C-alpha cells in the first residue's frame, strides 16, 4: 500500500486478486472422484487503497451454465472446464447450435 493523499481519490493503478477454484463432485461420490464441474471464484481490490471492486451486469446466485456474482457483487462465480473437454465456440451464436 502506498501513501495516499486523503484529499484526492485513489487512481486505482494497482490491483490484487484472489481466485479460488471450486471442484463440484456428485453427491455420494468416492474420495478422489472426477468433478462433474468446476467454478472460478474471483475477487478484485485496489492494491493501493484496499477498495473492493464489484462485478457489473451479472445475475446473483450460482449457475453451472453462466457467470454469476455473489449477492454483494464482490465475487465473480464463473463456471469453467478443462480445455481438453472441447469447446462450444459459436454454439451461443444465432445459427451456431446443433439440433
Mind explaining what this structure looks like?
This protein is mostly beta strands. The chain has one domain (15-85). The protein has no helices and four strands. It has a four-stranded antiparallel sheet with strand order 1-2-4-3, with no helix packed on it. Strand 3 (68-69) and strand 4 form a beta hairpin.
Give the helices and strands, then pairings:
Layout: E1 15-24, E2 37-46, E3 68-69, E4 76-80
Radius of gyration: 18 Å
Q: Report the count of strand segments.
A: 4
The percentage helix is under 10%
Shape: elongated
The overall average pLDDT, rounded, is: 86
The helix/strand series, from N terminus to C terminus, equals: EEEE
Largest β sheet strand count, sense and barrel closure: 4 strands, antiparallel
Strand fraction equals: 25-35%
**What's the end-to-end separation, in Å?**
54 Å
Instruction: Report the oligomer.
Output: single chain
Strand order of the largest sheet: 1-2-4-3
Can you count the helices?
0
Derived from helix and strand composition plus strand pairing, the structural class reads: mainly beta
Unreliable residue runs: none
Tally of individual domains: 1
Amino acid at each position: 500500500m502506498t501513501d495516499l493523499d486523503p484529499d484526492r481519490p485513489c487512481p486505482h493503478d494497482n490491483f490484487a486478486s484472489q481466485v479460488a477454484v471450486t471442484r463440484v463432485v456428485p453427491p455420494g461420490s468416492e474420495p478422489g472422484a472426477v468433478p462433474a464441474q468446476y467454478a472460478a471464484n474471483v475477487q478484485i481490490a485496489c492494491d493501493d487503497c484496499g477498495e473492493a471492486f464489484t462485478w457489473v451486469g451479472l445475475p446473483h446466485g450460482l449457475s453451472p451454465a453462466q457467470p454469476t456474482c455473489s449477492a454483494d457483487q464482490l465475487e465473480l462465480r464463473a463456471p469453467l472446464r478443462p480445455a481438453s473437454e472441447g469447446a462450444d465456440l459459436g454454439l451461443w451464436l444465432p445459427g451456431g447450435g446443433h439440433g
